[in-house]
Each structure stands twice: as C-alpha cells, then as structure tokens.
Design goal:
Blueprint (H helix, E strand, L loop, with lengths): L1 E4 L2 H20 L9 H14 L7 E3 L4 E5 L4 E7 L11 E9 L1 H9 L9 E6 L9 E5 L6 H21 L16
Antiparallel strand pairs: 1-7, 2-3, 3-4, 4-5, 5-6, 5-7
C-alpha cells in the first residue's frame, strides 16, 4: 500500500533493490500479461485527480498533475513514477505539491537582475511538507489493492497536502510585499 521510509538509508537500500529487480526483469523474456506500468500509473493519477474536481481543481493528463488557481496563488499536486517499475510487480507513485504566485512571477520579471523568473513560492515532494519522513511511496502494482492505495493517496492529500496549501490561502497569514527595492 503506502511505503513509508523514516531513514534515508532505507530509501537507498530500497532503490538499490528495485534497480536490481528491474534490470533482471528487463533481461528476462517474460510473457507476462500484466497491465503495463505506464497505464496503471496514469489511471491512478486520473482517479486521484478526479476526487478533487469538486474542489475546483483541474486535471492535466500531460503533467500528470491537478491544479487550482486562486486570486493570489496556484496550487498544484503532481505525480511521478519510477523508471524501475515492473509490470504487475512494482509501480511507484510519488507526489509533489507546490504553490506558485502569478503576482510574484510578474514582480520578478520587473526586477533588473532577478534570481529567478518564475512564480515558485514553496513546495516539494509531499513527504517533505511536514518533515516527518524520509520518503513516502504508494505501490500501485497489485490489482487487488490498487483501489485502496488510490484512496489512501486521496486521503493523504486531504490530510497533509491541503492543510499545507491552506497556509498560503489566508492573506493575513502570509504577507507578500512586491514593492520595488531601489
């Protein structure tokens, strides 16, 4: 279901194991009838995103991500997978959450030598939003547990990601000054 790694050493060990398994699977000539990893991943992303359409979010399959634009900020949850996926055995789902500001992007564009030219405010991989874990990964490969995994990812967004976004939704909680400094 959800793999939670509390130590970076565990992340490295799991990554090494997955790389070895993926290399072995690529060299084996299997007649496996498992659904391709890409299809499993994109379908899960669509299902997760659709759960938030009623909250004003829009899904972009090309991302894959879902986004909501408000007056001051744009909120985005994007999805990533692994090149070490093995159909029917391992299909990783990682999530990122970020906040951007069109006003900040405009302000940066007006500066003589901006450090950056985008509207990036904050965010990253979702396990870093609260710094309780070294890594969180959802395992989508098993057809029998996949719907529960998707539901777990949806609940995680509701309980961890949306409260993070909320920090940026109250203008009195976040004060941004876009005045030119001479």
């Amino acid at each position: 279901m959800r793999n939670v790694f509390d130590k970076i050493a565990d992340v490295f060990a799991d990554t090494a194991k997955r790389k070895a398994e993926a290399a072995k699977a690529r060299t084996a000539h299997s007649s496996d009838t498992a659904v391709p990893s890409k299809d499993v991943f994109t379908d899960a992303c669509r299902q997760i995103s659709e759960a938030f359409i009623g909250n004003g979010y829009k899904y972009a399959k090309s991302g894959p991500h879902f986004t909501k634009s408000c007056a001051s900020f744009n909120y985005r949850v994007s999805f990533q997978s692994s090149h070490n996926n093995i159909p029917g055995k391992h299909v990783a789902l990682w999530m990122h959450a970020n906040v951007r500001s069109p006003r900040l992007k405009k302000w940066r564009a007006e500066q003589l030598k901006p450090y950056r030219n985008d509207g990036w405010v904050a965010g990253g991989m979702v396990h870093l939003l609260n710094r309780r874990h070294a890594m969180i990964e959802w395992e989508l490969a098993n057809d029998e547990t996949r719907s529960a995994v998707v539901e777990d990812a949806i609940q995680f967004i509701r309980t961890e990601v949306f409260p993070y976004f909320h920090r940026f939704s109250d203008p009195s909680a976040v004060t941004l000054s876009f005045q030119n400094s001479a």
